[in-house]
Each structure stands twice: as C-alpha cells, then as structure tokens.
Amino acid sequence: MKLSKDFISHVTETESLLVPSGGAKFSGIIKGNKTFGLIVELLKNDITEQGIIDSLRSEFDAPEGKIESDVRSALDELRNAGAIVD
Question: Quick one: which of 41, 43, 58 has its CA closest to 1?
Fold first, then answer.
C-alpha cells in the first residue's frame, strides 16, 4: 500500500496534516499526532501494514498491542479518506 499522490503531507514536531489536492475526492484536512505523521511518511513508499508496525516498534516503546491498534486506526482513517492506494 502507498499514500495516494492526491494528498500532500506536512509534519511538524508535534502534529501532522494531510491535505487533499485537486484530484482527491476527500474534502477537508486530516490532522494527527507525531505517530500518525510517521505512518504517513512511511506510506510515501510502498509498504505493508506489518512493515509500518515494525518501523514504529523500532521508534517507540509501547505496551503490547498499542502500536498495532494505532496503525490499524490510522490506516482505517486514511482508507476512508481515499488517501491509500492498495
């Protein structure tokens, strides 16, 4: 899966924004935290859900299942907006 070329991301130290361009059907801004921003950045290249989870595990020390849950939630939100190309 990969981030759709119809979306532009902007990541700061504390938040991330995903904005649709003219070709996207979604209208609005998706705002997330640093973890969401890392997921979006990883999606700029073709990657699997497990690849995202593995990358975040190497970045963060989180309770069992937390990273998986956060990744699934983020991917669901991005799919609902049409921001992911499978």
Answer: 43
**Per-residue pLDDT at 68:** 96
Q: Where are the domains of the chain?
A: 2-85
Q: CB of 81 within 8 A of CB of 59?
A: no
DSSP calls for 32-78:
E-HHHHHHHHHTTS---HHHHHHHHHHH----TTHHHHHHHHHHHHH
Which residue type, as a one-letter code, is found at position 68?
E
* Mean pLDDT, the chain cut into blocks of 10 residues (86 residues total): 95 91 91 93 97 95 94 96 94
Rounded Cα distance between 12 and 51, Å, is: 23
Domain 2-85: top CATH class: alpha beta
How far is the C-alpha of 32 from the C-alpha of 34, rounded, in Å? 7
